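Appendix B. Raw example, untouched.
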Amino acid sequence: MKWEIAKQFDFCYGHRVWSQTLNVEYSMDSCLACRHLHGHQGRLIVYLSSDKLERGMVTDFHHLNWFKVFLDKTLDHKFIIDINDPLFETLLPDFADKQNLIEFEGGFKRPNLEILQESPDHLFEMYEGYIIVDFVPTSENISTWLLDIVQEKMAKINVHVSHIEFFETPKSRSIVYNDTKES
């Protein structure tokens, strides 16, 4: 037997898919809308699985509360930008040299706001809204990044993340399956 549980999370975020290209034969037009700065109401479903139950459960749903806090503090109402995005220097001019970035557990960076002490408040507010990653923030890449974060944490209590569904919009989603074996 195998059991699976799932928990859903919602958060707002912005991004830009600077690498987007379209095949007009399939897309019916050449509009590269995702190359624009834009936002989404994202929905993420984390699936945890096990071939044995502990106290009648795969794990307690509360064991994902830390992830809700992570999403709220890290991604909700933030803009995810690839450090290699050609617009990086334009959008973050005070960090154009890609120095003064603070690296966080989870594989992302944020601007070091301490260098802005003499700057106007609006600059501080702008820069605190950036989450810097080293991948193009497509739905597929964001879901893979989040799966890795959840799996690393859940492995400490022997819980396996089987897959993650990421709804970029109510009608568009990506699914990433974990290729690591259950413990």
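End of appendix B.
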